[in-house]
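Table S2 (continued). Query chain:
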Amino acid sequence: MEPKKNPKADVGRNSGLYFVVGLALVMLIVWRGLEWKKYDKANDYDIALSVEDQLDEEVPMTEQIKTPPPPPPPAAPEVIEVVEDEEEVEETVIESTETSQEEEVMEIEEVEVEEVEEDISVPFAVIEDVPVFPGCEGASNKKQCFQEMMQKHIRKNFRYPEIAQEMGIQGRVAVMFTIQKDGSIGDIRMRGPDKNLEAEALRIINKLPKMTPGKQRGRPVKVPFSIPITFKLQ
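Corresponding output:
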């Protein structure tokens, strides 16, 4: 059997159109609700009142303080009196210091001035003519011969102190002395780890022979010299 249905009675025929129209109306209502503004009349009244109150306030008057003008300068005296200087000034007479030919001339005796020799010290490394150790008079290199003879003298006279041996003391003693202008040895100084070692180094240096003094520009001068003496137990 064929279904009996009237095409005009189809309810869902225009449902899409109704949905679009309804959606547009809902969006319009929502937009108007968001854009709606409400003003409070009481606030306007309060603002106007507060403004009027501010306008009614009295502004305090300020008074400008005027500084008094500076006093006028004192008036100059009308009449200037001229006072004459009645005091007499004595004239000073300057006598001439020139001597006449008739005056006697005092003779001044000539005074002899003795030349004082300067006490100059020249280091061993830079002196022109080094001190000559006995036995180095004919050496071509007197400086090297001097050092070799010094080492030989120390080895010959070296004696290790018994007290330092028993206590196990060893080290290096720095010895400094000066070869005087007459060739003698003086101004001896020591610096070492023990007094017994220093005393032995002093004894060795005191045994040095007299030397030919060093010269600078042909004149005898003092020559300081330093040498280390090592004490080592074996």
